[in-house]
Amino acid sequence: MEIWKVHHRHNPTHEQGTRAIGALSGGRLWLLRRDMNGGFSFVATRIHDDSSLTMDEDYYKILEISRSASQAEIQKAYRELARKYHPDLNPDNQSAKERFQKVQLAFDVLNDSKKRELYDRYGSAFESMGAGGPGRAPGGGGGWPPGGGAGYEGVDFSQFFGEKYGAESASPFGDIFSQFTRGGQPSRRGPAAPTRGNDIQSNLQIPFQTAVTGGEAQISVRRHTGKVETITVKIPPGIESGKKIRLRGQGETGSGSNQPGDILITVSVASHPLFQRTGARLDVRVPVTLAEAVLGAKVDVPTPRGVVTVTVPPGSSSGTRLKIKGQGVKPRNAPSGDLFAELQIVLPEKLDDAALDAIRQIDEANPCDPRADLKW
Questions:
Q1: Domains and CATH numbers, the chain
Q2: pLDDT at position 37 over 60
């Protein structure tokens, strides 16, 4: 770690002449700065090198999209890459697991409009900028406050200097911050009050089947230290898109506190090629042959809890719905929904002359107008 002070000896405004404090730590450049009007600001950025961590990588390149990609394009790219590199599909492939973690991290940022805006503006250091980006600290307007200045006491530099500036400690930064913020005057502050750790926001897309029956999934979170951690999440049955899962006590560690924050996971559910869901109800289209529809038959239908056999009544048309009671979604602490199987008649690709003649005879012997009630 390297730290320095920049002095302006002929600064008529401030007796000490200290204008900025900078530090190089963990590949980041941190700058604590006081402007000519006595205001306070700080800037944090990362110095790129060949040994940069994963959070320095281009999230757009990780998702293989352009920087102008729409929300729909981001989600589509994530679905494709998540399926390709998912650990369950690549159980012995460490490279795929690492790639999946990068894809998850990139999606967490770019799928959140506020995080994406900060990332586009500040790059990999965006999380250090806070909601407002670099600039004045809260309450930092007006002149330089005497005796330490209450306008700066709410700024927490612990994530890169190890503790709150201005607090009495053995930190090598303590004296520098004291001179910077108090003009060299003795501190009148007590120890900083403990604060609860920050929550971590994450996004997770799960398969349709997992949302219906429940199960487990994995997320990758990045701590403020830069470490990437994989966490297994239990998915309750019946969860829907937009719902949140809270992992209590697994967020960031608080300053001087034993109360860590939480991880808040926003769930999105992938679509299914055959099944549709409305609340606890499931719908599926079941193909049947012409003979099965005309003569009746027993056919197997897959459900979330196994295959069931249903009876197709003779003379069934396409669009006929068969209700399979209790085979829909079974949310936790709620009754099961139903599954509705909609019949679709599938004709043979080729019919010989004899078959065509038989169909014409049937049509002539049973005249009807199936579109009699079709009106605007």
A1: 194-271 (2.60.260.20), 275-365 (2.60.260.20)
A2: no
